[in-house]
Amino acid sequence: MHSLKLAAAAAALLGQAAAFPPGLDFVSDLIQPNTDASLDFEAPYVRSYFYVGGGYVEDGSGGHIFRDQMYVEKLLPAFGVSQSTPIVLIHGQAQTGSNFLNKPDGGRGWASHFVEQGYEVYIVDQTLRGRSAWMPGYGASGPSTYSAEIIQQRFTAVKEYNIWPQAVNHTQWPGTGMMGDEVFDAFYSSNVQFVNNATYQQKTVRDAGALLLDKIGKPAVLVGHSQGGLMPIVIADARPELTKALVLLEPTGPPFQEAIFSNKSSRTYGLTDIPVAYSPEVVNPATDLIQQTYAAKGENFVQCVLQAEEPAPRQLTNLIDKPIILVTSEASYHAPYDHCTVEFLQQAGCSKAEHLELAKIGIHGNGHMFFMEKNSDQIQKVLRDWIQAL
């Protein structure tokens, strides 16, 4: 595969497929863009990486360290970019950008599909995570981890635990989803430590993400998953002019409180733990964002805590004109509450916010990690069509 990628890169640099010597015509044929989703080989690309954000701080012993930077991997289609909108992919808690490169069962990840479809793709490792080094003592005294049991319970074997009503519908994770299964072990071994400080995490990703959009230089589609699903919101708030749309893959929620595993208060700014622009301005969220609890829409759903109708709900100034799609799978722990997040966005003036419930369009059996499950290609195509229609 490395030789194919090098050959493709050479062709791209020369601006024509004819860069291949006559004796290598078969290589040129082999690496033409793949239109058969059943083939597992990667779309050819030109790869580079860089860092954004962060800065030097004193280390307390006379030296300096660099902290809060964010790793970015850039993939360009080897045969040229054909889509005008860049894609930024942001992973969730305990994960890295590798989530989007390959699936644990060896299949192609979403990054490969976007590249094949002609998109310029940027994959990040969130600040304080993976290749974006965390300096001990900043944001937390030590790193946190997820046990294998938590991964099984929430992501890969949810049907076995049956903690929320929709869990019984989970069928799309490849393998058993349990320790000792080859696919589960491949996925769990990719999990990393994380800094369990939502405020610090959101602030540093917002700052680095804004600089990433500055570097890209044109409006991009921000795609975020789970804990990383809030990052498109804070980045778009910081750079609305460089954000074309937001794709929220089961973002952390619901507004103002936890659900399913806890009911404690959280996210004092509604969707986020850090300030975002509201009109009228929110100075003190505890008093300015008046909360009201609304009845659950059915027995398998939670009550929504949103803004009260009186006084008039404050508006998310920098997001009101942005296309936003929130994607929810059939069997995830997000199924009982993601509608609350959509309703919060709509109430706050985001008239272009829509809720894509996969089961309602005939895509069944998925859990929280649906972008790496058996039918992930089908879901990616739905989102590709949504992005292309912008």
Automatic annotation (TrEMBL):
Taxonomically, the superkingdom here is Eukaryota
Annotated signal sequence is 1-19
Domain named AB hydrolase-1: which ranges?
87-375
Under the heading InterPro entries, the entry gives: AB_hydrolase_1, AB_hydrolase_fold, Carboxylesterase_BioH
Keywords, A to Z, come to:
Signal
The name this protein goes by in its record: Alpha/beta-hydrolase
List the lineage, top down: Eukaryota, Fungi, Dikarya, Ascomycota, Pezizomycotina
